Amino acid sequence: MWRYREMLPVISDHNRITLGEGMTPLLHLGRLGEKFGFSDLWLKDEGQNPTGSFKARGISVAVSRAKELGIVSCVIPTAGNAGGALSAYCAAGGINATVVMPKNAPVTFQKECKFYGADVKLLDGLIDACGLVASKISERTGAFNFATLKEPYRLEGKKTIGYEIAEQMNWQLPDVILFPTGGGTGLIGMWKAFNEMVNLGWIEDRLPKMVVVQSRNCSPLVDCFSHESTNKAGYTGSIANGIVVPSPFGKEMIMRVIRESNGYAISVTDDQIVEGIEEISRTEGLLISPEGAATWMALNDLVSQVAISKHEKILIFNTASGYKYLDSLRSK
Ligand SMILES: Cc1ncc(COP(=O)(O)O)c(C=O)c1O
User: Fold this and answer.
1) Which CATH class is domain 2-49+157-328?
2) Any idea where the domains of the chain sit in the sequence?
3) pLDDT digits (tens, 9 = 90+) for 270-292
4) Which distant-in-sequence residues (6+ apart) come within 8 Å of 78 by Cβ?
């Protein structure tokens, strides 16, 4: 990932905290494509990052920059994966970490943070409740708050996904990208990278349609996209816990990406997600996360709605390793 260091905010290489994140495989889904009639279907497997998710990218840059700025303790509200990544990178950087996570997050997510030496606080409720507690901890103790988009550097790390896709696809971006979206740093970061590359003259300005994929149980971005009123009180958890964010702080920025790219926002059910995990494991030998499986199911729904054609160059995203979720998933 640090091959793009000129575009990243960490000034001295000496402050870089790396566990080998980035340059994840871009896989052609030949068998799945053939079975369902897609001619140019790809998956970027972010589950192969350190700590098993794409969160490693943003957290690596943010913790490196925090070290550079002399920060010694920090706190994060998390659905799970960002907390695991923060705990690991803080361990590697000698920074104290507090992680605030919903009590019903899979036990694996709680345990990994503890192994990395973080102070783990478990709460009733979803990530917005964790966000309030993390802010209070930050105010009370001075711990730096790494909440999504409330500091600028996680986004910079996430944008490396955009550079990587371009490089791996020989500077020809896909027609459509489907991304499981909660707080939005992945999506916004990628879009920032694409625009930076257009300005650098590295790619042409025909950019992909960006599709936000959410859980039917918690879909504030889909509601906003379809001009329906958001029903915050009605939002509940999902097996795709990473995309359960009832009030995304970056909602307006996410809407702008969808608008500028002529994209969509769409939600899928937990039953669809389980079906997607099973289909991709059996057909491609990839055990992907619920969030990743959501992008495959959303793609099929958009094809049925004639919003996407099976002959476009399509990229779906697996944002975490399915192995982290095994205890919370049932199999046939
Ligand atoms: C596996 C996974 N996918 C997707 C997301 C959503 O990412 P973002 O908050 O950047 O939209 C998360 C966030 O926790 C996640 O853990």
Assistant:
1) alpha beta
2) 2-49+157-328, 55-148
3) 999 999 999 999 999 999 999 99
4) 84, 86, 99, 100, 101, 127, 130
